[in-house]
Amino acid sequence: MNRSTQVNLRLEYFFTASLLYLSLLLLSIASYADVVPNPVVEETASFPYIKNQVTVYEAGAWVGPIRIPPNASSETVNAANLLRDYLEHIGGSIAVETGTLGNGFKIGTYEEWIPYLPYANNHLIGNEYETTILTRGRSLRIHGRDTDLVEVAVWRFLEVLGYRQFFPPPNWEVIPTAENQIRANIGIAESRLLQSETLFASGPQLYEHNGVIEAGAMLEEWRRKNRILLKKEIWRGSNQGNTSRATN
Questions:
Q1: Which of 83, 96, 167, 215 is 20 to 30 A from 173 via CA?
Q2: DSSP secondary structure string for all residues of 221-239
Q3: What's the rounded Cα separation, in Å, for the pair 156 and 141?
């Protein structure tokens, strides 16, 4: 492949990634909220499972804790703690507890929760979707096919509440505030729209020099919060020899 073809491919990948990101940004700007809406209503097309309205926030406090099953992995615990940290920013203190009964939030993989929801697990057994979020009974349930996808589901749920991370720097993070009550009626069953694409997978980066800090970690955190996970690189910048190269 000659140099001209490489440059053209690099530009093509760059503009594809840029347009994709701008589309996501415009959608986010159009739908974010400074205050959590009440009620919170979100449903994906042809949602296949039974759901109902659940009050998750009442009189200035979360209704129930974040519940993890006794067999929860360390990754599920981390996802529960992540959810706790953001919910506390949004509406005040909430605990993470090991338990399977009662109101509040239930979080974990499909497999982890199947033994503990014997009469209400049709959304767990044979679920073809990567993530499922629904309100049923007295709880709001946040599930993923595996532990990585549980975290994806957490970010998706926070997005429904109005959370956004528009750009990588911290000052572009928007955390909404809960008012007196949040009634939720949610039915989301999804697989990632971006599972085969990655925006700027390992670049651009700023390497530490004279107080300038590498931006790679910041960009990775932005991707994680926006549920853009690594599968295939669209464009990659390399600092080796001051050149950039396209990868398949």
A1: 96
A2: HHHHHTT---SSBS-EE--
A3: 12
Q: Is the pLDDT of residue 181 over 90?
A: yes
Q: pTM for the full model?
A: 0.73
Lowest mean pLDDT segment, chosen from 107-121, 138-152, 221-235: 221-235
Q: Round the average pLDDT of the chain to a whole number and report it.
A: 78
Phi and psi for 86 in degrees, rounded to 5?
Answer: -75, -40
Percent of the chain with pLDDT over 70: 69
Contact present, 94 and 84 (Cβ < 8 Å): yes
Beta strands in 110-230, from DSSP E residues, in sequence order: 131-136, 139-144, 164-165, 173-174, 181-190
Instruction: Report d(CA 179, CA 91) in Å as an integer.
Output: 8
Question: Residue 54 corresponds to which amino acid?
Answer: V
Q: What is the mean pLDDT of residues 76-103?
A: 97
**Residue 186, φ and ψ in degrees, nearest 5:** -125, 135
Which residues, at least 6 apart from 54, have a Cβ–Cβ distance to it below 8 Å?
A: 103, 135, 136, 137, 138, 139, 140, 183, 184, 185
Contacts of 201 (CB under 8 A, 6+ apart): 230, 233, 234, 235, 236
Q: How far apart are CA 189 and CA 123, in angstroms?
A: 9
